[in-house]
Specification:
homodimer; about 400 residues; alpha/beta; Aldehyde Dehydrogenase, Chain A, domain 1; Aldehyde Dehydrogenase, Chain A, domain 2; seven-stranded parallel beta sheet; four-stranded parallel beta sheet; 15 helices; 16 strands; about 45% helix; globular
Chain lengths: ~400, ~400
């Protein structure tokens, strides 16, 4: 791993000197090469899929693992889109002149070397590379064992395309050893890697956060709530809840938990139950909710803190907005929370007091996403408070540097 | 520690709801109380000093530990200055309306609970509290054993002043147990503490960075370089180097290492040696430098990477700016670096290619400081790239939250 770290660091120094034109030329060459070498990629991927099926992998996971022409073209198109985005590198955010004549400016620069540890989806290889490359970083990728043949094929296509454009192939290095020991070693390569981003399930993220000596950006777990306040517009209740819960079950911005004000419960709960049971969603609620609608099954304490990622939702009744806020701040994962209300003070109060990356009034939690937020790209959704919070676009892959222009100044 | 964490979290929820007026009122009350209860503080401090002297503490450290009337008034004045600063909390950095009518804004909010682990200087207790309180955070402080009686006295004055103003006393909690076990426990209180800032020597910072499961902001080590380029204005060379090396030896932005272009070495090195030896600084250099001036003693490989914090400096000769940049990027701690040059291209090249928080042209590295940069306050100087880089003022103690105003929008 030391050797890989040193190569990535050397590539990052070259990347730091590249301008937009060179970086975009590299991205377009990579996109073209991925499509041109589709057959190779599919052949490598077929071996991964065969091995996965032989080992009894769940069908939904096999689907995520599979590369089709459409998915390869999608990956290439994503890279072309990244090439079109504004390059934030080199922007001087501000520059001021101090009383002593020193000009002090803050300039946006690449992070340096970004490490990404991810699970099975091989198209992450292309996406993650594109965002890091656009922002002038070198990237070390460590994917899962299941997708190793696909990842190797994608990485060599990318590296060869870069080399053919006289750009540093080591801007992307795939760690080919998928053992846990190597992952642990990577998490301690602090002298070479500037930030580590785990992408995958809660278990992976926890392991990386606990074992890394490199700063980590945690992404992705979402126990998201919708609070139906007593003044909620009833015409919004079912559409927003159905969208937030059922549009996609396996995503981190899906709603996992409802909180309903007791003053609207008798009216709202049957409407919610009608809409969700029609979609096949199981509702687990407290006693008061069950007394209103018998389709609700009993919730345990554990349910309040569970991210189901499935056709299940919890439902808690409360007597005030303060109780709702307390409940949500206690059980949420600081991702996305929404209030349905027509009350001005409650809308502001909820947005001020809920501790989460994204706090909505009268909208679905499903909008927490780099594309929906207008960033044009997304490397993940940060649920931590340092560096980046919420959907992370290109800016999250940059840092700043102070540049100071003097004329011989010394400190008095 | 669990109990302390829960109390701090509860206080942070209240802090989050306070406006500027309340926070400033608290700060002014604390400043007043510190001065009014000066005698108590000095009595407690005298016991710390007595114990330290009995244990044979170095005189310079005893000096740092000692509280005088002047230092207590300085601490109070610092807190009053913080009260005068602009409050960044609540600022909406931007708000845009998306094509679907959703208003998406990014709002500045407190981090929540800030943990600070620090060494002997008791006045850090007041400074750190003031910056965290101003930004709406609750603070858990864990100071060193040597200053425990002083810290306890300062913390109770602060807590009582807050309580007397009907503000949450738990906005500041001092951990009174100074054992290593408690510090380790604190580093893992992830469910309560949002960020950990170690303040002190390199050993402390390393221990925290390696053992914490909470995100850490690393501060403070500085192996800072000055590169004397071949086109340097000779009239700046000695003044800037003397200022950067000798104004204060024990600070992280002091210059520890010189790099001199061989084309100017014969002219510059004797001037540098004259100026530094007059101040009693030992110069450790490579063979080429020693051949020019016999006052230079031999440098070992280890010298290039050493932060002396003392009247010693290393000196390396190079044949090009590229060699200088490579040397500096290899041995620096990413803190502050300066080039002395009259060459336009080299000035830009150095600022672009040096990897450090602050990169100077023709100025002393001693300016890397929150006050010198115009922030009006400083919680430390970050040498990492995530979240905050360089001098950290109030903004480094904040995070952001997306607030989204909808009218029933669902994701298509």
């Amino acid at each position: 791993m030391e050797g890989i770290g040193a190569r990535a660091l050397a590539a990052s120094r070259i990347m730091n000197r590249l301008g937009q034109t060179d970086k975009n030329r590299g991205l377009l060459a990579v996109a073209e090469a991925l499509v041109a070498r589709e057959e190779e990629l599919k052949t490598a991927n077929a071996e991964d899929v065969k091995a996965a099926v032989a080992e009894g992998m769940k069908e939904s996971l096999v689907d995520r693992l599979t590369l089709t022409d459409q998915r390869i073209e999608g990956m290439a198109e994503g890279i072309r889109q990244v090439a079109k985005l504004d390059d934030p590198i080199g922007d001087v955010i501000y520059m001021k002149t101090r009383p002593n004549g020193l000009q002090i400016g803050q300039k946006r620069v690449p992070l340096g070397v970004v490490g990404i540890i991810y699970e099975s989806r091989p198209n992450v290889t292309g996406d993650a590379f594109a965002l890091c490359f656009k922002t002038g970083n070198a990237t070390i990728l460590r994917g899962g064992r299941d997708a190793i043949r696909s990842n190797k094929a994608i990485a060599s296509v990318i590296r060869e395309a870069l080399a053919s454009e006289n750009l540093p192939a080591d801007a992307l290095i795939l760690v080919e050893d998928t053992s846990h020991e190597i992952a642990r070693e990577m998490m301690c390569l602090k002298q070479y890697i500037d930030v580590l981003i785990p992408r995958g399930g809660a278990g992976l993220i926890k392991t990386v956060a606990e074992n890394s000596t490199i700063p980590v950006i945690e992404t992705g777990t979402g126990n998201c709530h919708i609070f139906v306040d007593e003044s909620a517009d009833m015409s919004m209740v079912a559409p927003i809840i159905v969208n937030a819960k059922t549009q996609r079950y396996g995503v981190c911005n899906a709603c996992e938990s409802l909180v309903v004000h007791s003053a609207i419960a008798a009216k709202a709960i049957p409407v919610i139950c009608d809409a969700l049971t029609e979609k096949g969603v199981e509702i687990r609620g407290d006693e008061r909710a069950r007394a209103i609608d018998s389709r609700i099954v009993p919730a345990s304490e554990e349910d309040w803190g569970t991210e189901y990622l499935d056709a299940i939702i919890s439902l808690k009744t409360v007597d005030s907005i303060d109780e709702a806020i307390e409940h949500i701040n206690r059980y949420n994962t600081k991702h996305s929370e929404s209030i349905l209300t027509q009350d001005y003070e409650n809308a502001l109060k909820f947005q001020n007091e809920i501790d989460a990356a994204a706090v909505y009034v009268n909208a679905s939690t499903r909008f927490t996403d780099g594309f929906e937020f207008g960033f044009g790209a997304e490397i993940g959704i940060s649920t931590q408070k340092l560096h980046a919070r919420g959907p992370m676009g290109l800016l999250a892959l940059t840092t700043t540097k102070y540049i100071i222009n003097g004329h011989g100044q010394v400190r008095p």
